Task: structure prediction
Amino acid sequence: MTLNLPVHAQERLKGLRSSVHSSGVFTSDFSVNEFLLVRKAGFEPIGLCVGTCVYHVGIQYGSWSKNQEMDVLSKAMYHARELAMTRMRAEATAMGADGIVGVKLTIKRLEWDEHLLEFIAIGTGVVHGEGHKGFRAHDGGPFTSDLSGQDFWSLLHAGYRPVEMVMGSCVYHVAHRGVLSGFGTVGRNVELENFTAAMYEAREIAVERMQVEAAAAKAEGVVGVDIHEGSHGWQTHVIEFFAIGTAVLPLEQEIAPEKIADPIMVLSVND
Amino acid sequence: MGLFDMFKGPAKDPEAAAAEQRRQADIMMSLRGGRVPTSTMERLQGAAAGRLPWMATLSPAELMIARSHGLKPIAAVSATSWLHYGWSWTEGHAQGWETALQRLAQEARACGANAVLDVKMRTIPVQVEESMDFSLVGTAVRVEGLPASSDPIIATVPALEFVKLLEADVVPTGIAIGAHYEWLTDWRGTAEGMSWYNNESWELSNLWETVRQRAHAQLRQSAMKRGNGVLAHINFSQMFARERDVNDVKLKEYLARHIVIATTVDARRGTPLPHEIKMVVDMHAGKTPLTGTTRHHQSYATNEQDGAI
Result:
């Protein structure tokens, strides 16, 4: 097969440099496949957007025998993430991005102080190749989403567009059981109803908060929801419930379901 | 036994020993003069002329992709720069990789290549006195129907991704590095924001923001030499705290450092991938977004380590 490459690529392989690019340098943490798919979907990456926040988390002790939300910790986790996300979005706005794809939100404990947490939000700012502004969020700023380049392509081809990365968090103290309560249940399986109830309440609070965010972003739904539990070095009975997902809206020109191609089934014989 | 003694082997006869010494001296002088060492040069030119067999780091499947797209492997090329951080650990990385890149390009030029693909960044895991080796290994290829290049491109992507990018008019051209570090002295003792309440340690936030932004600005600068964009960042950051006595006052100091390494590309806007993309469901049990991205159970994790019965 003869090589059928675009002219510019051929020139570069011969060792000829193209003239200076007017558009400047873009930066992105996309893999090659993500990059190609985002371009295929009609977007161009323009720059990496980062938001950082180092946060001193306040101190709060749950009362021994009570199920309760640790509102000081909840607020800290929420506020710090919010600050990191806002800064990332401000960077994207400054570079004129229509949205941010592939946002990764990470939390790191700084090793010399247990109360210091470092939050980092990082993603790639993209613009629509033909200058279409219809992909921006309801406030006219860039959309945010934690979807990968591959997921971004799939979402657009499912007839939806991302609006905002939404999240809800609840740090919760699960009550300890009374010292003597164990004796009554020796030899029987008993549901620890207050533990169950604690899980229910904490999860519900986190999910509700995420849903409120999605409603505020005027979204139709939330895709890719992940609900997980974590502890960031608190007392043993203190757990954070965290819900995160991407709020979505149908595309301006919605794709009829029957127009969406069925995937092809293959069976790879790799190990 | 010293670090390098293990390579020496049994004692040789004087003639061989002298030849070895000459070769070592040649390598040293060539690198100093910015040339490819003579013995390497002979090997590369022999492979380019077809007198010696070609060599490729590609797997057979990759070789198929390369051949179907008119790429002809010539030789495995490599370059190293072992650098001592006399001045700055953080910024030494930029210098080390840059030197290795230039040496790799020289080898590619020596064998008449258009590009080096599948370039991998390597470092030997030994700690020697505040130093580190920056090594690159890849496969030099000739593109059918094109003349040899005076400025061969260095692609840190495998063969498949290399041709996919070329078809979309994106040329992977090399490596860009951005590195920055900064010290913060906490004169007022307020950086960590110690209290019972929630508050942002804005001095530390600010330190991070500054260091990251500078590193990324440097990345852009570094990318401009070879293209108009970068992909696939590796981000590496660290923050340290230490205490220091200044006139009997304990001062806390913070060091934040950040390194970003990425593949540079020379991309034309608006040339989409010429292939149609179809969704495929692999019925094989593997990772796929069609089954979500999180694990479907984590209640029984213990059996995963067990082998077959």
Observations:
- Chain A touches chain B through 76 residues (CB under 8 Å).
